[in-house]
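Thread: "does anyone have the structure for this chain?"

Original post by V.I.:
We have the sequence but no experimental structure in hand. Need at least a predicted one for the grant figures.
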Amino acid sequence: MNLGWSRVKGGGAVDRALADAEKGFDPAHPAAVLPALLRAHLALATLGGDPWVEIKQRELDEVIRSCAGLWIEATAAKPEGAPGGSVRVATSVLMRNPAGLTLEKVEFPFGAGGDEAARPLVPNVAATDTAMVALPSDRPYSQPYWLERPRGKGRFAVSDLQKIGHAQNPPALVARRAARGEGAADL
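Reply from O.Q.:
Generated one for you, tokens below.
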């Protein structure tokens, strides 16, 4: 029974690239398989439209980040902000392996910042960006998801059932980064 990508129309290239990555993987030098992983990433991008492909692309992105030794962080200078106010957000991208990646852009929430030019990532040298993010005045205050609605007798009323069981809310603001591998698609 074929369980590989070759069972999907156009998926043979994904199978071949992933087989090359598996065959060439060396735990002492994980960045060596990045060219094969980036080929798989490009090949997956041509399959689009299927939710399963999108899930696998996100998983492959995580494998690529791990093999490149990428550490990505976004932090706010203060842990709070109010609607109509602003928050200073700093990002840092650190590549620990010689992976040949270029940081294309950093996208801050609500269109703040993000005007930096593309720059190659240098091993063990952080690429940093900072922006003042203006919070829209109509942005609701954040609070624990279980306190958003009035509680019932002996229980909390939760509107988004996907959040049940999580100790914290998802982040109120998210900064995104886009990197590109040599001869490959955006990551």
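V.I.: this helps a lot. Residues 5-68 form one domain.
O.Q.: and The helical segments are 12-24, 34-45, 51-68.
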